[in-house]
Every structure is written in C-alpha cells, then in structure tokens.
Amino acid sequence: MIERTITRRDFLKKTGAAAFVATAGLPLYGQQEEVKKTRVILIRNESVVDANWKIDQKIIDQMMDEAMIKLFDTKTADEAWKRIMKPTDIVGIKNNVWQYLSTPKELENTLKARIMAAGVPEKNISIDDRNILRNPIFEKATALINARPMRAHNWCGVSGCLKNYIMFVPNPPDYHADSCVDLGALWKLPIVKGKTRLNVLVMLTPQFHCLSPHHFDKEYTWLYKGLLVGTDPVALDAVGLKIFEEKRRLYFKEDTPIRPSPKHIAAAEEKHGIGVSNLNKIELIKLGWKEGLLI
Amino acid sequence: MAPLLILLSFMTAMTDTTMQKFIPPSIDQWGISESTRFYSGDQIFNYMDGAGEVYLAYKFKDLLVQRYASPDKSEILVEIFNMGLPRNAFGIYTYMQGRGPRVDIGQDGENKAGLLCFWREKYFVCIKIEEEEKRATAAVMELGKHIANMIGRDGDRPAILRHLPEGIYLENTLRYFYRYEILNNHFFLAGGNILHMNDSTECTLVRLKQDKSYLLLVQYPNIEQTDSAYNSFMTNYMPDAPEIGVIETENKKWTTCTRHKNFIIVVFDAATKSQGIISLDTIKRRLP
Predict the structure, then answer these.
(1) Largest CB tally within 10 Å, which of A117, B88, B103, B234?
(2) Which of A9, A24, A214 is closest, CB to CB, to B250?
(3) ipTM for the whole complex
(4) Domains of chain B (ranges plus CATH)?
C-alpha cells in the first residue's frame, strides 16, 4: 500500500487559508490536552542592540543571567550554570559564523565567562563552527552549548538551533534531502547525543525572509532585540518560527508562507523524538521588553 | 594520470579561464582584494551551506567568486555561476526574481538592497555590496555591464515559455524549474512528488493577473510519464472531485487540471470555477 502524502489541501482542511502560514512548519495535528511542558525563555531588552547593530555586552550578560535563573528556577545565574556544567566538563560552544548574521561575540563572551565561572578551565572550552570535526575540544566534548541567530533559509525554511548542528557530519548534503527534513537525526549522532546543555537562539536582528539562496538582505531583518533560551532545540525553533510567521504577516500584509516549509521542526519531534515542536506543549516565559512581542 | 582525469582537469581549467576573463582587475576605486576562487559541483557546499542545493537543482556546474575592496575597505563580491545551459541560468534567475526593480543588464536583471542579479547565456551573476551607497552602487552596475558584455552573447529562453500568453501573468512571478522541491519553495503542493517532476520535466509557475491564481504548466518527456503523473495528481490531490479535474478546495477557491499530449496544466486558487476552466483553456489552445 502506498503511503499517502500530505498535500496543501490537508493544511487548508485543518486550518483554513488564513492560518495556513502559521502551521507550515509545525505539527499538523497538535495535541490539546494538558501535558508536561518544556520551558522556553524569551527575553528582550530595548537597549541591547542599537540601529547600527552594536550590541551592549553588559545587557547581554544581564539578559542571559535573567534567562538562566528563570529557566532553571534558581536564585542566581551561577547556580543555574552549575546545574548544567561541572568543572570536569569539556565544553564546545557551537556558534555560527555566517558573515552577515553570525553568533554575536558578546554572547560568546557571556557564555564562555559563565561556563568558566562554573569551574570549567578555559583550556577546556572552545568556540567553533566550521572546524568542529577537527577541533580536539569538540572531539572529546562532554558538554555542548548551541548558540546562533535565527534566519530564513532557502533550502530548509528557517535556520535555527536544529540546523546549527549540521557541521557535526562530514558531509552536510547528506541531510539536505526533502528540505532538510531529517535535521533532527543529527541530534542522535554519538558526537552530539545527550551532550547539549543549553540552546540560545539569537533573535536580536533576525532575518525573517529571503529570496535568494544565501544572500543576506538587511531589509528583511528587524530589531527584535531578543534571545530564546532553553534546553530543547526543537521548542526554541518552534517559538522562533511562530515569531517569524507573525512578523511576515505584518510585513507582507498577506499570507506569505515561509518556503520551503520548515517541516524539519515538526519532524524533529514527530519522527526523531528529540524535542517538542507543538506550541501547546511549550511553557513560554516572556521577560523584559514587551513592545512588538509578536507571540 | 588516467586519460579521463586528464580530460576532466583540462575541462575544469578551461571553464575557470573562461569565467575569469569576464572580470576586470578593478572598477572605479575597487581592486581585486584576494585571489579568485572556484567551486565545481558539490564543492558549492564549501562556499554556502544547504542553500547550494538550489543551484544544484538547476544543474549548476561551476562558480567563480571574486572579492574587490576599496581603500576604505568596503567590499564588492562577485559570483558568476556557470549553469551549463541557458535554460538553467534562466531558471535560477527566475527562482530569485521578484525582489525589486528590473535593470537593463544581461538578458534579465534585478537590483535591490545592494544585490544585482542577472543572467546571460549560460551564466547567472550576482554582485553584492554590504551597504548601499551611491558610488558603490554605481560600481556594481558598471561591473555588471562589463561582465554581461564579456559574456558576449545571449542564450535561448526555454521553449515552454512560448505557451504562456504574454500579459496574462505577473511577470516577476514567473518561475522555471524541473524539480518538485523548487515548486514547493514557491508554492507548497505536497510533501511527496505527486506530479512526478524530475530533471527531465520542464515546469513553469506563474500568478495570473485576472484573479491572482497560480498556473502550473509541466512538460513531460513522453505521454506515458504524463499519464502517470496526471493519475497521481488526481489520486493524491483531488480524489473527491465531483467532475474530472475540477474541485472547489477548502479555501473556497477552485483547482482545475487537465492534460494535453505530454503537458499537464493546473490552476490553483482560481476565484471561480469558470475562471479556472478559462485559464486552463487559454493555455491548452497554445499547446502544440
């Protein structure tokens, strides 16, 4: 028997045309019942980045500290970091070096400083992207931190936490099929599995739309001035996607679905079981600046 | 070295040399700032990540990357993609078109937000600056004209376009492609390949002026593949159609579909049933 494929009409049946956009990368048949929720922190600060994209280091420090306290229900940020790091850990911070929208240095500084404050020696910490498979720290890492900006992507819809681990395979195109639907499988690789202690999806100046495969277009960025922080990469991507879709609706003034559909996010939950993409199962805690929240 | 390897090396060198001739040593105050880089086939992933798949879906061959810098360190980035055939270059251009105003460079060109894109013959060219600024923008345009001139000749547009009457569709919505992944990037149809598109099918997608509906025209290599694709589409997309090839979909719009020889025509989101049928017939009458 041939397996029936999901078509555009299935989305229309479930949601109606107006909401078609909103469900493009999220589960088609979401659960409504009460379930244990995964926690995601959305923290924003109006002054963290200026119109020239200059980032305030002190504010990034404060935002991360506040997010960590809330994420782990601790009294101090140090306490939160000590919950996820021990002095014997060898820590790889997986950043993203795409020249137009890279992981901010200021955030890298904060992450490194807090990990060191938790007792990890500097020599056991490395920040890397393209060279992680040849980086001795990443090769023997016991803990990973995943930090990158979110942006629209011409082959997988959006690039977020899930996609950031594609450099953990020697041949990334192996995961490009069907709009990168199986990015979730990356998180089950031995070099990765069970090691990621924290994900930070940078939403300071995200790029919500692109028309060309790799070109950056500042016109399609905005000063959202936020960070999404959590332990579940799927949940962070799902929340980020929801914000993108709302932004697109406001910008384009009509339904302009993200293309290709970022179905890897739902698949990471439904097929690979590595996290939660259903917004009903996410406890979203919003901190800080509220204007233009979009979610 | 085996003769085949020698031949391949020679061919690569030939391609590189050809594209390198297109780029000048300087333009206005911008001079070449680093050596020219070349990427062939799957090597495109070394230059860009998964986005390289888009170019490969259009049968990309080689890429030349050249950076220019001015004394104040502002940069101009030139990318010349050898797409192998004019229709592939045209296709990748249409994949990206719709960003902004057209410019008279190459066979079709657009320039917006510091990015000039155009195609000519079998080449697709992108020239980019980081910040839009009058002098840099002028240099980009000059560079584009220079490269287009050096390419020297035009390529044929895909023959399938002749079946689309001019004036009935929004020009900057035209997409030309081969694979269903590209269709889904512009108009999500289905998770699977229900129209059996592949590297030997030619497809165009446009939005019609009349009612903003989407018109998809697919040309298959033979009747057998056309019939198979048509049956698959009917089974997967409109199994509940009360009449063959016509259905009102859940968004209260109409989808109509027909086949003619080795072509399939589909109209999505027509405002009315009659408009959907008229749009089909308009195209069908122009088919051989």
Answers:
(1) B88
(2) A9
(3) 0.83
(4) 3-151 (3.40.1000), 159-284 (3.40.1000)
